[in-house]
Write a structure and sequence with these properties.
alpha+beta, Alpha-Beta Plaits, 3 domains, 7 helices, 24 strands, flat, Flagellar P-ring protein, flagellum
Length: about 375
């Protein structure tokens, strides 16, 4: 019994040891996530169509004349003459259909499409898109879309109130477009393999080239990558490996991309994004809010009895000013955590943080690029 217990403990320890050895690898970012292969890209398609089957939430034909003309042309092609009739339906809407055609998509494949309203329709929920041809930038038809819409937003309206959630005038059709024409060219026709960085940077390009060369030295005994500039890294395909397998294995290599020191400020929403490498030189900051309130309280002045005066309104304005005391704090951010801790110590709102960052940048203490949107 004792020997069996010892064997069980040894087995558990061995399993734990294997689990520790097979732990997660060093954190890193795959090359396929920070770079794309030059020449392998999507193509944008768009088209004009009609959505039918709406529950009285479609376009008003008198307000959206293009919808009425499209409906008349559609019925004419079906052999129904309505040119002299006054159409009053509210179950149809004119829409724009957009889609992205993935690279090297074969004929007969399906892609998702997005449908958005053009007229004064209030909702596309429950509608069905009639067959719509999708053209590319060259004017050729590459796909045809049709099918029921999936709309997440809704609107409910009463006599005195209206509730809207999401965007009811836009929807998607999963696998709603059928590819009718292939884009010329194939993966084998690429003249060269060039990885283009999504965020150009010299250091990141060097790291990508070093990682690929280390992989190539272990696999092919020679280097195959050379950085051209901060945006592109060229690859020389070895003869002993297929091009598809080479790109797949290179895409799984991991590096630590370098990020520039940048602070992005969105004044509309009060969003502040601070990069990891942002540093602030030693600077003293104080910030106080000045609040001025103006209120109007007019008074009515009435004349004395049996007098010939008139009742008048006498204006009365009240002014009040209050300035909150500001805290004086010293900011010195050698790293992101220290900088955030220093800003939080002052006790500021997002709008105040934006103003302070702009002032610190003007003073020359913000060692980063300040992007204001």
């Amino acid at each position: 019994m004792r020997a069996r217990l010892i064997a069980l403990l040894l087995g558990l320890m061995a399993g734990i040891g294997l689990a520790l050895l097979a732990g997660p690898a060093d954190a890193g970012t795959r090359i396929k996530d920070i770079a794309t292969l030059k020449g392998v890209r999507d193509n944008q398609l768009f088209g004009y169509g009609l959505v039918t089957g709406l529950q009285g939430t479609g376009d008003t034909l008198r307000n959206a004349q293009f919808t009425e003309q499209s409906l008349q042309s559609l019925l004419d092609r079906l052999g129904i003459n309505v040119r002299d009739a006054r159409l009053r339906t509210r179950n149809i809407a004119a829409v724009m259909v957009t889609a992205d055609l993935p690279p090297y998509t074969g004929q007969g494949s399906r892609i998702d499409v997005t449908v958005t309203s053009l007229g004064d329709a209030t909702s596309l929920k429950g509608g069905t898109l009639l067959m719509t041809t999708l053209t590319g930038g060259d004017g050729l038809v590459y796909a045809a879309a049709q099918g029921p819409l999936a709309v997440s937003g809704f609107t409910v309206q009463g006599q005195a109130e209206q509730l809207t959630q999401g965007v009811p005038t836009a929807g998607r059709i999963p696998n709603g477009a059928l590819i009718e024409r292939e884009v010329p060219g194939s993966f084998r026709d690429l003249p060269e393999l060039v990885f283009e960085l999504k965020n150009p940077d010299f250091k990141t390009a060097i790291q990508i080239a070093d990682a690929i060369n280390a992989y190539a030295l272990a696999r092919f005994r020679h280097r195959i990558a050379s950085p051209r500039d901060q945006r592109a890294v060229a690859i020389q395909r070895p003869r002993e490996m297929a091009q598809t397998r080479l790109v797949a294995e290179i895409g799984d290599l991991t590096i630590e991309p370098d990020t520039p020191a940048r602070v992005v400020v969105d004044q509309r929403t009060g969003t502040v994004v601070i990069g990891r490498n942002v540093q602030v030189s030693t600077v003293a900051v104080t910030h106080g809010n000045l609040t001025v309130r103006v209120s109007e309280a007019p008074e009515v002045s009435q004349p004395a009895p049996f007098s010939r005066g008139e009742t008048t309104v006498v204006p009365r304005t009240e002014l009040a000013a209050r300035e909150e005391p500001g805290k004086l704090a010293i900011l010195r951010g050698s790293d992101l955590q220290t900088l955030v801790r220093g800003l939080n110590s002052v006790g500021l709102k997002p709008s105040d943080i934006i103003a302070i960052l702009q002032a610190v940048k003007t003073a020359g203490a913000l060692q980063a690029e300040l992007v204001v949107q």
